[in-house]
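Narrative progress, year one. The postdoctoral researcher (J.K.) led the effort to move from monomer predictions toward full complexes, under supervision of the PI. The following entry was the first complex the group processed end to end, covering 488 residues in total.
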Amino acid sequence: MAKEITNRSEDYSQWYNDIVKKAGLADNSAVRGCMVIKPHGFALWENMRDQLDRMFKDTGHVNAYFPIFIPKSFLSKEAEHVEGFAKECAVVTHHRLMNDPDGKGVVVDPSAKLEEELIVRPTSETIIWHTYRDWINSYRDLPLLVNQWANVVRWEMRTRLFLRTAEFLWQEGHTAHATKQEAVEETLQILDIYAKFAEEWMAMPVVKGVKTVNERFAGAEDTYTIEALMQDAKALQAGTSHFLGQNFAKAFDVTFLDENQKRELVWATSWGVSTRLIGGLIMTHSDDDGLVLPPKLAPQQVVIVPIPKPSEEVDEVAEKIMATCKEKGIRCIFDKDLKKRPGFKFAEYEMRGVPVRIGIGKRDLEKNQVEIARRDTKEKTFVPIDGAVDYIEGLLVEIQNNLFQKALKFREEHTSSADSLEEFKEILDTKGGFVKAHWDGTTETELKIKEQTKATIRCIPLENEKEEGVCILTGKPSAQRVLFARSY
RNA sequence: CGGGAUGUGGCGCAGUCCGGUAGCGCACACGGCUGGGGGCCGUGUGGUCGCAGGUUCAAAUCCUGUCAUCCCGACCA
């Protein structure tokens, strides 16, 4: 098969592409900028989706579904919002095809032009707030806590599998509240859910913070973010939660009567994470042998490989282990494929990121043991058959923790402080990563720093210590350091 | 959208400069030998050379256009 993966040190981008393709996560498609998510990649997404969905439901949210098409006029209602997306919208202009009168194929029927063009949703704020106007009349209708799992389209110039595609899958939550405080609390609650999911499920450490004016979502009052650091020391925005104030309530005239019979505008939030998380997952843990997956999200947690091939004795033990795994809720498969040899299978499952591999051969059975190999460290050990599943149960937890600790250590080693622009540039050009530095709080300075260094302010961390200092560019006073990095 | 590179069986590539009717490795099929980290030998299947025009007796090769992918930049989740 000779499926070689480019080394990270050689060409990081190519390494990433190789992992995506050779681990069977996704392929490019016939449509520019769009990808085919393959079964292995989709199974991963399903696990992520299911867990997030549980977390949303546990905090009182419900799912709904809104149309993929948005009337063009809706996007004109909130000026700032539309400005953020206008450049990357797909537009539907016609609703019928016809046979080409000149010969082969089909052409757009010019007589089927739409009265009003439809925009393929880049995000659903507008159509949802148009709908909320009908749903909300009284304070008794609030809060309204709705999420949807959907695809969206943003016509990107430059795409990369999972990280930035023209069409992607995501969830978008849209909530309406009676008070500002409640909406702000909702925004932060979701940020906490995202952070918890990233750290406890993806084993990907994140920094929670608030975006600068320049970096925040079009139409939001505040954008909160979770920022992760990839293995090439570039930052990845992994999820955002927006406090929208009353901007959409005003634009779509969504009001309610409060307890005092007074008509008030509602307060809003929106928040989302996307298939981009899969890109983050890959770049946080994987190595030169392929994908590395955290056990909690891995489609298959354990694979049993018979050595050198299935036999009655081996099968019996394997089936027993499978059954015990199933009882314990461990996802386990047994590869009985006769056409592939063990060495091939080892390489293949390493490529696909299966956290634990069990090898069972005649020699093991004689000693009443199996060989257990872990994907994260490549360590192998022999364990008595009877205790194998218990051992694996503990091992999966250990792998999950190890991946998180390893990633955390990497982030800590790649988080620096800079007190001058020279030092700042020096760090970015050598080790990269997050750089904590003082900033005078203006967009102008932020843009100048970006121009000179290609680094942007990823966020102002929420758990930030106050520290007096001076801006590394202008020397003006600053009350705290902010987090800079070059990013995806 | 700017700059650079690349499109040749499923995958990776050679052939292109200097035009003569397509080749290698892997994969795949069949047979045999094997068997604890991507096996070996043999026999085979599979390609209108990204697409569309043009030049020519003749085009993978030369010319024009176009599409796609990758890398770098601007923009964004």
